[in-house]
Each structure stands twice: as C-alpha cells, then as structure tokens.
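Consider the subject:
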Amino acid sequence: MWRRLWSRSVRPPRAERQTVANALRDRLAVFLALATIVGLGAAFILAKDTKFLMPGPLASAHGAIKNCSSCHTKSGSGNLTWMHGLAPGDRLADSKACLTCHQMPNTAFNAHGVSGDILKQSTERLAKIAATTPAPLSARVQGAAFPTHGAGERGLSCATCHQEHKGTSFSLSETSNERCRSCHVVKFDSFDGDHPKFERYPFKKRTQIVYDHEGHVGKHFPEMSKKDATKRIPDTCSTCHNSRTDKRVMTVAPFEQTCSGCHLDQITGKDRASGPKGVAFLSLPGLDLQTLKKKNAAIGEWPEASEADLTPFMKVMISRTERGRALIKTVDSLNLMELAKASDSQIRAVTNLVWEIKGVFYALITGRASDVLGDLGIGGGAKLSASLIADLTAHLPRDVVVSAQQQWLPNLGTEMVNHKEAKAPKQGGWITTTKESTATVDSDTATIPEPARLAQAERQARSKSAAGPAVAKPDGGNETPSASEPPRAKAGDQTDDLLHPTEEELRAMAAPVRDALKAGQPKGAPANAPSKAVSDSPAGASAVSDATQATPATKVAPVIGIESKVDPESWAEYGGWYRQDYAIFYRPAGHKDKFIYSWLFLTGPQAPKGAKSPAAAVFNVLSGKEAQGSCTKCHSVDDIRSKGRLVNFSRPSVENKKARFTQFIHEPHFGVVGEQGCLTCHGLEKGRSYLKSYEQGNPHSFASNFGAVKKETCQSCHASGAARQDCVTCHKYHVNGVTTPTTNTKLPTE
C-alpha cells in the first residue's frame, strides 16, 4: 500500500498531467504564432521585394521573364500580386499569353493541337479498340471521380501539361504516363502488355516516287548487273536512303546518286526503242490536198509529203481565244488525211486551221515568243511570267523556225499579206502586224535570208540584170525603168525569200556571192581572165554582147556540198531543238527538264482525266506511259478533287510527316538491327498490286511494297526491364509541332 501512496504522492493525477501538457502546447503555439508574425513583419519591412513569397523559380527556358504579368493575366502591380492568380477566371487567358512567343495553329487549345475532324476520327477509331478492351477498375474509378468527357471540346490550357515554378532544371515538356492516362482512360500496364496492335503502321498514303522495291531487287538490278558489271545491286537500304540531320526521317538520296545510272538515258531518249526521241512542238499536219483542191479550199501552198499530226502544243496556241477553241473542237473530229466525206463547214474549218497554223509561224518569225505564248490563258487566265515563257519555249531559236518556214512554206510572207482575212487584225488571229495594203510589207517584216539561199538569190539577180527589170507599158509592151526610179513592188506571184526580198535586196544579196566567186580564182590569174566555160564555147555563140566578151566570167572551183552522216535527232542527243520531216521537235536535256516540267505544271490543273481540251492533250502526251522524258515513270500523279491532275515533282518534306501522333527515330535503331538490316522491320510483300495502285489518282488508296510494321517486332526490345516503353517514347502530343523562338525576344510588358 505504501507503494501506491508513494506513487500518488509523486505522480500527479492523469487529468492534471493532461492539463499541464495542453497548457504547454498552447503557450508554444502562441509563441510560434508571435514569432511568425514578427518574422513576416520584419521580412516585409527589411525585404526590398517579395521574391521570397514566389511559388518557386522558373524553368531555364523562361528564366529571362521578370514580370509575373507577362504570363499571368490576373497579376497586377504591387506586393503579393501573384496571389491574384488564385482567383478563378478565364483559364485559357494565360495560355493565350503563351502564344505570344510560341507559334501554333489556330487549333492550339484543341487536344493535341489538331482540328475537330481529326479528333473525331481518332476518337472513333480508339472507341472501336476500347470496345474490345475491358477498362481496369482504377480507370473506372478515375472516370467517375474526374470525368473527362467533353474536355477536348472545352479546350485545354497549356498549364494542363506544362507546369512552371519547379526549378531551373525542370523539363517543361516532360510528360508522364499518368498524365496521358488522365484522358486515355482505357489503360494498359505497359507496351508489352495490353497495348493494341498496330494498324497498317506507318503507311498513311502512297509515296510521291513510284519505286517498285520488289521489281528492282528481284528483276531490274540483276538484269542491269549482267549487262554492266559496274551497276551492281545496292548493298543496303542506306545506299539510296539517308537519315536527315535530325536523325528521325529517312530521305531519298538525290537523283544523280541513285537513279541516273539507269534512268538518265530513258529521259534523254537514248534508250527509246521506237518512236521519236523528242517531243513534237510545231508541225505542218498532213492534209487531204486532193479533196481540198476539189472543193476549192483556198489554203495556199502546203507540202504534199507531210504526214505529221497536229501537235497538242499547237492546239493550245490556236485555242488562245474562243474562236480558236471552236476551231480545234471541230477539226478534232476529223481525219485530216481523209476529207472526202467532210461537209462544207468542216472544209471551211480545215481551211481556217491552215491559216491559223501559218499565222503561228508568221508570228514566231516576225515577232517574239512572248507575244505568241504570253496570253495562252491556261493557268486561270493570268498572264504568264517571263521565266515561265522562257521555260515553255526552252529558248526556241528563231533560226530553227525560219529554216523550217523556208523549206516548208517559202512564200509565207506573200501569202499572209495577200490573204483576204489578213487585212485587219481579228479576234483570235495571229496576224497583228500586217497592213491593209496587199502590195507591200513593212521593212520590219522583211528579214535577211539564210546563207543557204544566196545562190538562188544570185541566179535571180543575174537573170533580172541581164534582161532588165521589165515593167508593163500601157500598150502591153515592156520597158526598163531608169536608175533614178525607186524599186517596184514585187508581184503577188513572185517567189518569196523569207518573207519579202525586193529586187534591190536580191542584187545586194548577190554581191557577196560574186565576191566569193572572185576570191576563188587561181593565184596569178588576171582579174578579167575568161573562164573555161566561155573559152570553150562554140564559135557560133555570137549572141553574146561585146561587153560580155570584154569581161568574161571568172573560173571558179566546183562547189562541193557537205552532207551530215548524223540525223538531226541524234545530233541533239544531249537535248535541244531539231527539225525532222515536217515537225520541230524538242529533246529533253536530262532530269528536271524545264520544258516538260513547265508544260505539265501549267496544264495539269486544267486536265482532269477524260477531258478532251487542248490542255489535257498536252498533259496526256507528256505524262503517258511512253512519254518523252519519262517523268511519270517515277513521279506519281494525283487527282486534284476531280478538277485536274498534279505530278508530284517536289520531294517529300518533313512538313508532310508532322501531322502524325506517332514518331519514330531511325538513327538509334541502326545498331540493333539484325543481319537483314532494314528488312528486319520492313519486310517485302510479294504479289501486291503496287504499281497498279498508282494508275488511279487517289494517294490514300494503294498497296505498299512492304508489310506493316508489327507490334511484336518493337516488343522484342521495348519490354519490361529492357528498353523504355513509356507513352512519349513513340507518341507526341503536338502533332503539328510548336515553333519556339531560339533567339532573345522582346517580352510582353504590363
């Protein structure tokens, strides 16, 4: 008992002890409160600013920002202004301030920064997958507690994922799997666990370059290596594909490094087995001249031997006006080589066609190419630029057109002046410089003839000087004009020499020929030594005048003609213009030929499939299977919403690969692939209709050479305890990217 009494006397009762503890705690709390108040008061008094009350330091990317109001729209001025942001307001207001520096599309606040249509399609696709994947219990609980339905429609602020004030070493772009799963409630534990299988990854649409990997590896490369040992089969895919500097996207090496060894000769026409190697640009089409003569069609001179077709390019040039388009539409239904059954109106159309063609040649000789092609009216009616006109003509030399005219239509100038429809310019006509007078031509159109015709000019001058230019007398006789009289106008039936040389011009043209003949005399011979032809003439040749005997002709060396053993087409083997038969051709100069590219670029949008317009005719002749240049052999052709066609000349850019949720970085994987190299992941599939899929214009309907990459292939490395497998390893949030300034910018102020 004494022990119990002792304990009572030493230890206070339990109630008393509790009371003492509470008192001590209360005193301590009061002390701490007073200390806090004193400390805060001292801090406000002694501190120059309120940085010690900031939520935390900014990340290094935003370290230069000094004012809270630069990012927080609710922030004012003065102490503790950061607390204003705690008040509820427009949650997207601060995000709009982010866009002051970070450039994004107008869909920046949509989920993943994409349009509503893409989100809808993606959601529907994922919903189908989710229907077959049971949601875990945790996902159902989270969905009930924190519903995310409609969050994408309301818009997401930048702070949803990018949270500041966590220190300079914090990564603003770091995203955890848990954050991704806050919206994607159909969860899976890991990539090698419940992640859905791939759907045709990575094939979204066909490539712009038509390259049959199966055909090249299995057929073309072996055949080429047998013909030429230097052209061997590529060892690896990296022979033709290079990784960009960003190590992400694999690009195709330039044409000169990959395809030129086999395809350059196809482009220039060297390997063409049949048909012309060049593109027929200008031509005189073959006509049924007998029928036209029987029906009294006034077409003037026309070569009988021509069997050429009317080129699509000439159809375009003639169709520059409504009158020309109606004319081409009429003659397109005719066989110009067989007009026996043609009606009178069709014969008139053929006659007008002849004069339109002559007008094209006349305009090209007397004017400029820009005058002929500058207002074609194909590309939406806009006037063509000087550079495009230069590419459309490939700097066609005027001399090529002149020489063709001299051989095919030697009297073109006289005919155009005397043509009854050329008295005044007409809508749709090419004759814009012809005067109303049919007897004379402006000196601007009287051009100097070619040297090849000087001999003929001299013969004409000799015959006219011997007899004297005859002028009709009123009584029907002839007289010789005096030297003081100006040269007479040439008769309408006189043979033309590059449009209109006068008699005076003929004598001037003959002078260089006579000088050349004199230069051919033997050394030491007298200036007026008689030629052998004169000295050997019979004695009875007394009709020669005394003046002629006094100045006999000079003995000259025989004229030896030069004939080329190379045909014009082969002569232009490296590209350029040449004339053959009754057409002027252009032969492609090589890859990226400006002539073919420009015509395809200009006519494509106006040439839908099945169209019969002149623009469609040009596009078809340049994009056909056997077309010169072979552009569409490698470059795919897409339909433009059924309004036209587009040849994919431009190389695929990285921009085309941005709008994707999935990304793959090639470079780090090169060291882990097996002996098959790229075929470890990209397996060739035999028997697919790859080339056939390019015959139609929908780029999203195709059969790839390769099979889709399988999840099992990636899973062999990306698994638990091996390579990383978090969501952002393969998926990116901003599918369209974010442009972030890399230089110092002027920050917005209050």
The longest helix spans residues 14-46. Confidence is low (pLDDT under 50) at residues 1-9, 424-428, 432-498, 519-551.
